[in-house]
Amino acid sequence: PPGGLGAGLYYHGPYPEPYVRYGKLTNASQSDCSDVIHLTYVLNNAPDETYLEQVAEVIDIDQWLRFFGLNALLSNTEGGLVNGDRQGDDYAM
Q: Fewer beta carbons under 10 A from the terminal one: N or C of the chain?
C-alpha cells in the first residue's frame, strides 16, 4: 500500500501512520499496528544486556533462526528479509 516509511523493521515512533506499509494478513480489518510498533521498538531499542530476553518476548527466536538457516542452505538470492531488504517491500511476516 502507498504511504508509510517502508517495512524494514525500523522503529518510526509510537504512531501508526509510518507503519502502513506493513500489510497485515491477520486482524487486517482492525487496522491495528500496535504489534508491529512494539516489535520494531524492541528490535531497535532493547539494551544489549537484556536484548535476547526482550526479543524472545516478541518473536519465536528458534523459528526465525530456522527460517534464516534454511534460506542460507538453499542459497536463496531472492530479495527479502534474509538479504537485507531495507525497504521491506519484498517479504511478509
A: N
